[in-house]
Design a protein that fits this description.
The chain is α+β, with helices and mostly antiparallel strands. The protein is built from two helices and five strands, in the order αβββββα. The chain has a five-stranded antiparallel β-sheet. This is AKA14 protein.
Length: 133
């Protein structure tokens, strides 16, 4: 079923800036149902020029710091791409996709219900791997 993120006015190609793209990502993830103990920070990574579009790549890094361990043992990254079409009218909304660091599956932001379990799984798998090494 389609998941619609409400109350977000998606940026259009003619209004896009790297900073505004990052704000849109922050707005979108604020609608995700994750426990308040999760903290995150986001950053712009790069711009990619394609024949029919421009892609802007961002990373949002998640962790759960605690009093006992203020520096978490592992983090989980979610990578976002905002794609601005060169073919569609400049007033068309941007397309926003995301992938998890441990996956190749590309999620369309407005059609996917984010699951906190995905972040937990990434961190648990990293901790297991570190303990084995």
């Amino acid at each position: 079923t389609e998941h619609v993120i409400k109350n977000i006015q998606w940026i259009t190609g003619n209004n896009f800036t790297v900073e505004r793209g990052q704000q849109q990502i922050e707005e979108a993830i604020s609608t995700w149902e994750v426990h308040e103990s999760w903290l995150h920070w986001s950053e712009f990574l790069q711009e990619e020029e394609l024949e029919n579009s421009k892609r802007y790549h961002y990373r949002v890094c998640w962790s759960v710091p605690t009093r006992r361990k203020p520096i978490p043992r592992a983090t989980a990254s979610v990578y976002f791409v905002i794609e601005i079409s060169k073919i569609k009218p400049a007033t068309s909304p941007a397309e926003i996709f995301f992938t998890l660091e441990s996956s190749r599956l590309i999620h369309r932001l407005e059609q996917c219900l984010f699951r906190e379990k995905w972040l937990k799984d990434i961190i648990e798998n990293k901790i297991i791997l570190m303990e084995r090494l």
